[in-house]
Amino acid sequence: MKKLLKTAVCGLIALGVAVSSMLCASADVPTVSAYAYALYCVNTGEFMLSQNGDVRLPMASTTKIMTAILGIEMLQADDEETVVTVTEDMYAEGSSMYLGAGEKILMSDLVGGMLMVSGNDAANAIALTVGGSFEGFQNLMNQKARDIGLENTSFVTPSGLDAEGHYTTAEDLAKLMEYCMENSLFREIDCNRSITVNFIEPSDKSQTYYNENKLLREYEYCIAGKTGYTQKAGRTLVSCAEKDGIRLIAVTLNDGDDWNDHKNMFDYGFECLSLEQLEMDFDGLSVPVVGGTADTLNLDVGEQPSVCVDGDEGEEPEVVYKLPEFVYAPIREGEKVGIIEYYKNGVYSGQSDVTAAETVEYRQAETSFVDNVLSFFKRVFFKFRK
After folding, report:
1. Could you tell me whether strands 306-309 and 274-277 are parallel, antiparallel, or unpaired per DSSP bridges?
2. Contact yes or no for 373/336 (Cβ under 8 A)
3. Which ranges constitute the DSSP H helices of the chain?
4. Is 375 a catalytic residue?
5. Average pLDDT for residues 356-377, to the nearest whole number?
């Protein structure tokens, strides 16, 4: 098994198509019809493919990924689940959950219904509940974008309806989806093919909403995603797929064949990438011992994580040692001393426990406690006599 590992990044610069500069030799780069697209590997933190990936474009209802995560984070911050009362100012044109004024619904159901059918009324309901006003929610959206590090994204509407100054990039959308997929409730909701919502008021209203993300049914490795469309933005799509521990995110903006393009990009990424168990050499690792029968303690490094690679040789991952400057005796063999963390391109890949490889006993003092005390006072006495 190779000890030297390399992140799989595939590239091509030709005919104005700019993608990553490192070529994946094991698969053909797919043809993608989108004006802008990106394929991102969460494991490595790198874009495997990107065309016009940093061009600012309208995003349509993929906006609702941000709207959803803000609703979910409000829900998770509260002691009790938020109940939303629908008002007339939450109405919006376009796709809808068909909420009626005066109806009451749980925030989690509101987020779920919005993600399933891309309800603009649901997006407005979340915005007014979380932000207090559309302007307040806009500020929250843009602050969250800055927190995540989205440098080419600006939000105006919670639904994604076209507005001046409302834009993002394919690469920023991939990073936003990566952030959201780290949230367990977002993953739990967005992976569903359908959601049945039981309204609080009227209590007899129950509605099933079906997910518009066809990839959940047509591509076996797809685990989440969000569709979008406006006349200005064209068809937009963000999707996430996972296979054998490798997680990929695909984004297309203004794409007439998005379902097939996402499948082809995922197939390409999974063909290029694999997980390999690290076998790095940590022989000779030790820390000083205070008060022990030995001056140093030899250390063992536990099981190392699997790292995403393309099968070619390359640089080892960055290693961060989280060990004490010294340990006190006694210490027993197998006792945990610290950890080692592994990073590929700044992305956390896992960690190993570091334990004592041997037992080091406490070293008994050669003089008694009383003798040590007397010796101390003698030194003090003679110091002041001088």
Report:
1. antiparallel
2. no
3. 64-77, 107-117, 120-131, 134-148, 170-181, 184-190, 215-218, 258-272, 369-385
4. no
5. 71
Measured CA to CA, the distance from residue 16 to residue 67 in angstroms comes to 34
61 catalytic, yes or no? yes
Helix, strand, coil shares of the chain as percentages rounded to 5? Answer: 30, 30, 40
Catalytic residue among 50, 95, 108, 118: 118
pLDDT, tens digit, 9 for 90 and up, residues 208-230: 999 999 999 999 999 999 999 99
Task: Calculate mean pLDDT across residues 144-169.
Answer: 97
Which one is catalytic: 20, 61, 159, 349? 61
Catalytic residue among 64, 144, 175, 344: 64
In the chain, CATH 2.60.410.10 covers 283-307+317-386
pLDDT at 26 (0 to 100): 64
* Cα gap 229→250, rounded to integer Å: 17
Torsions phi, psi of 286, nearest 5?
Answer: -155, 165
Active site residue 118: yes
How confident is residue 24, by pLDDT bands cut at 50, 70 and 90?
Answer: low
Q: Which CATH number fits domain 283-307+317-386: 2.60.410.10, 2.40.50.840, 3.90.550.10, 3.40.50.620?
A: 2.60.410.10
For residue 351, give the H/E element and its range.
Answer: strand 347-356
Instruction: Name the pTM for this structure.
Output: 0.79
CB 177, CB 189: distance < 8 Å: no
CA distance 92 to 94: 7
